[in-house]
Amino acid sequence: MRRRMEREEEEEEEEEEEEEEEEEEEEEEEEEEEEEEEEEEEEEEEEEEKESNKRMKRRKRRRKNSRRKRKRRRRRKGKKAKDEGEKEKVEKWKW
To answer: What is the Cα–Cα distance from 55 to 21, expressed in whole angstroms?
Structure first.
């Protein structure tokens, strides 16, 4: 009787230990999955940030170039007007 009781107790203890080990393994797996998901999210955020930075740089470069073009156009118009004014003066002197 005693042996049977002892055996049953030992078996129960072994079963409990096995269940605990399984639970621990499951928890570890869940933690690993969560960590992987977090890493993936961080990578996605970094990629989005890089894309955003590229867009900002492109926008800044375009603005700068358009400003330069506008300045060039203004200068050209000013020179043309100046040249035409001098032509008119020369024509007046000829008459």
So the answer is: 51
